[in-house]
Amino acid sequence: MDILNHRLVDCQAVHLTCSKNTRALEKPDTIVLHYTAGRSVLSSAFYLCRPDVAASAHLVIGRAGEIIQLVPFNIEAWHAGRSFYRGRVEFNHFSIGVELDNLGRLQRDGARFFAECGAEVMPSDVYADDSGGKISYWHKYTDRQACALRDVCRMLAREYSIAHVLCHSDITPRKIDPGPALEGALREIGCLNIQSLISNL
Q1: pLDDT for 37-80, tens place per residue?
Q2: Residues with Cβ < 8 Å from 146, sequence gap 6 or more?
Q3: Rounded-to-integer distance, Cα 28 and Cα 17, Å
């Protein structure tokens, strides 16, 4: 995996055109992580590229570890929205947005689990979290997806001097993504936490 002209190469990444994004992104220092809450990596990527959708991202990472790049890393993507964290605001202006193909928070109906979009998730793909004092259910991330995310983040950190990795939920109280299941997936591949995605370079 490498970066050439602000695009991923040598990793079989698929490149789409997201022509609505044109503003320069100078010296990004942060990666912001999201989940798509969509039914597939392709449907989410095509949706984010639509000119009538006021959202986009630099990358979408699928459950098999596949990577789709929508926006070059030197162009601002619309992934953070109104955002603030530790005295900084408007994170679109200095961050790279990475979307992970994941259905997000789930609702339980007896022994069955459903995403907001209506898709059913098998119990083996459900992550149960009780950190908030009440159990909640989330779509698991895959090991291949977590490994691809780690590799991408470390590549970006080397190329652009990235200093921070944040969750969307860190920078806006309106959002809950990427959710606690990501921390579980990262531990499975030997990453202690989200910030460790860019450590041990």
Answers
A1: 999 999 999 999 999 999 999 999 999 999 999 999 999 999 99
A2: 182, 185, 186, 188, 189, 191
A3: 21
Q: What are residue 90's phi and psi, to 5 degrees?
A: 55, 65
Q: Is the pLDDT of residue 111 over 80?
A: yes
Query: So what's the pLDDT on residue 200?
Result: 59
Cis peptide before 51 (omega within 30 of 0): no
User: DSSP label at 197?
Assistant: G
Selection from 95, 105, 111 nearest residue 128 by Cα:
105
Structure tokens at 33: 């992580």
Enumerate domains of the chain plus CATH numbers. Answer: 2-198 (3.40.80.10)
* DSSP category for residue 79: -
168, 178 contact by CB (below 8 A): yes
Calculate the alpha carbon distances from 110 to 107, 113, 114 in Å: 10, 8, 11
Residue 41 DSSP SS3 = helix
Q: How many CA atoms lie within 13 A of 104 on its CB side?
A: 18
Write the DSSP string, 117-181.
TS-EE-GGGEEEE-TTSS-EEEEPPPHHHHHHHHHHHHHHHHHH---EEEEHHHH-TT--TT-TH
Determine the Cα–Cα distance for residues 98 and 113; give it in Å rounded to an integer. Answer: 26
